């Protein structure tokens, strides 16, 4: 397997490496499993890219907002995906659940965010996300307005302070800035 993932506990990294070797031994019998795994990782990394409209939509939002990103997962993995997508520089702050110590949907995440907002002398204009369980819960815990990315015609979420739209382009309609 290629380079280990920074930030992963050694035991988890070793398990993942062995899992990859086992998968590639089965997928390509008689071939070098390290080679298959490495090629796959390289090809996959090259395919990580944002949806076409996202960079320009973030630029539009970022023209009059400071953008912060809250993301769910392991720090090293989330930061790597973001870097591969070329979007890291779009965000003034990146909060990863594993680094914060709890899920985006837990009250503790909103409390940690509130402390950072205080320090940075910032307020939340709008929380944008597609997950009711994490993104809308974060907005609710912080008492912030939210834009739920969904199919508005079919969405079953009905919560105060939550608007619905098909993409982040809809944020400009609601933020009032
Ligand atoms: Zn919705």
Helix content: 40-55%
Strand ordering within the main sheet: 3-4-5
Order of helices and strands: HHHEHEHHEHEEH
CATH topology of the largest domain: Rossmann fold
What does this protein structure show overall?
By secondary structure, this protein is mostly helical. It folds into two domains: 38 residues, no CATH class; 122 residues, HAD superfamily/HAD-like (Rossmann fold, 3-Layer(aba) Sandwich), CATH 3.40.50. The protein has eight helices and five strands, in the order αααβαβααβαββα. It has a three-stranded parallel sheet, covered by helices on one side. Helix 1 crosses helix 2 and helix 6 packs across helix 7. The chain is elongated, with a radius of gyration of 19 Å. Bound molecules: zinc ion (ZN). Zinc ion binds next to loops.
Characteristic terms for this protein:
mainly alpha, Rossmann fold, 3-stranded parallel sheet, 8 helices, 11% strand
What's the topology here?
Layout (H helix, E strand, L loop, with lengths): L9 H18 L5 H15 L6 H9 L5 E4 L3 H10 L8 E4 H4 L6 H14 L6 E3 L2 H11 L3 E4 L12 E4 L5 H5 L2
Parallel strand pairs: 1-2, 3-4, 4-5
């Amino acid at each position: 397997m290629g380079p280990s993932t920074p930030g992963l506990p050694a035991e988890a990294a070793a398990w993942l490496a062995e899992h990859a070797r086992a998968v590639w031994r089965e997928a390509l019998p008689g071939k070098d499993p390290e080679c298959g795994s490495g090629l796959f990782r390289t090809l996959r990394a090259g395919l990580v890219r944002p949806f076409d409209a996202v960079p320009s939509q973030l630029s539009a939002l970022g023209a009059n907002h400071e953008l912060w990103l809250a993301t769910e997962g392991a720090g090293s993995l989330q930061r790597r995906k973001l870097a591969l997508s070329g979007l890291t520089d779009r965000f003034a702050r990146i909060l990863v659940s594993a680094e914060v110590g709890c899920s985006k949907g837990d009250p503790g995440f909103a409390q940690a965010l509130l402390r950072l907002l205080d320090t940075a002398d910032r307020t939340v204009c709008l929380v944008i996300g597609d997950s009711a369980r994490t993104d809308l819960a974060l907005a609710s815990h912080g008492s912030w307005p939210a834009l739920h990315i969904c199919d508005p015609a079919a969405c079953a979420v009905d919560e105060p302070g939550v608007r619905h739209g098909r993409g982040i382009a809809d944020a400009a309609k609601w933020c009032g800035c």
